[in-house]
Amino acid sequence: MNARERILNTFAGKSVDRPPATCHWWGLYKFQHAGIIRGYEDEGKAWRMNGRELMAVDQRFYEDFKPDTFHLTAGSRKALTSSYAAPDITQDSECLTDIVDAAQKEALLCSVRSMDSREAIDRFIQFRYSDTAGARREFEHVRLLREHYGNAVFLSLNEGNPICEILDPSGVMGFEEGMIALIENPEMMEYLVYEMYDALLGRIRILKECGADAYIGSETYCSNDLISEDLYKSIIFPAQQHFYREVERLGLIPIVYFLGDICPRIKYIKELGARGLMVEESKKNFRLDIGYIYTQLEQSMTLFGNVDSVDLLQKSDAQTVRREAKRQRKLCDKGHFILSNGCPVAFDTPEENIRALLG
């Protein structure tokens, strides 16, 4: 049984040759592992990569550690140059276009933030999601990986979803203004949220064409400590439910990475239409017990583990990681479970600890 068959069987609730294991590796660690960057000070090098260069980074991690899934991030929309130096904007036509695009985007954002009309929202969304050529470039490494490995590997791609883009401090509305608008202008916010999720489906179609098996949507700012149940249920949940159901209809396995304290949201998460759930490890003010979450899901979804990426995977030792992996597998032993860590692998994580998680 190859890795792809193992994961597909797990999602289908069928028997597997061994319990599947992967790790949360869409972040920056894989670029450090490949020798591209040292840390956050040069992370820009990572986010400017795409195509064969990005494929090589993902392939290096996969061949060295053999996780049961590829956990990919999108590449850059721009053609990769041979140098990582900043471009000369007086000569680079692409860079000049970027300046014009940035000015246009800022003008459109001002119109959206005023919450005056649906037409302003429509214009922004058309600008935001109309670049299909750019999207194909972002997913070129997915196509190349599928061509290289065929159906022997499971390819999933992880992105931050529209609610993140809307409420992020530097996002469409910004955190403070967005939170205020949810209360003071709920009808326009409902329209903005729904239409952005719906427009994202165009990218999903391209991702499917490039050969992906699954789409992982990171859902932030949805937890109970930030948004009330009523606001989530009336404004955000309908858009997410529509989106994940459409992802499956388009032929990809929909997986939701729901951040924060998900326990009060489990009844809604089960109704999203997603077939997989990824969760964080416990944080400072909440506890995410993987056994409790697994029991609450009642095998309605495939749950990914949440081995602590910092206190265990980065700072502990291989024996301790194996012990936690064994504990989580014992708690979630009725199928529909994939061992994993809760957040992206941190810089300087010992390789032997990653192998202990996946072994």
Structural notes for this entry:
This protein is of the alpha/beta class and 359 residues long. The protein has 17 helices and seven strands. It has helices at 3-12, 29-33, 44-47, 51-65, 93-113, 118-129, 132-138, 140-149, 162-167, 175-184, 186-209, 229-249, 266-269, 290-297, 309-314, 318-331, 351-358, and strands spanning 70-72, 155-160, 214-219, 253-258, 276-278, 302-304, 337-338. Strands 1-2-3-4-5-6-7 form a seven-stranded parallel sheet, sandwiched between helices. The longest helix has 24 residues, at 186-209. The protein is globular, with a radius of gyration of 20 Å.
Strand order of the largest sheet: 1-2-3-4-5-6-7
Mean pLDDT: 93
Proportion of strand residues: 5-15%
Helix content: 40-55%
How many helices? 17
- What are the low-pLDDT stretches, counting only 5+ consecutive residues below 50? 81-97
Structural class: alpha/beta
The backbone outline, from C-alpha atoms, is globular
What gap, in angstroms, lies between the N and C termini?
16 Å
Briefly characterize the structure.
This protein is of the alpha/beta class and 359 residues long.
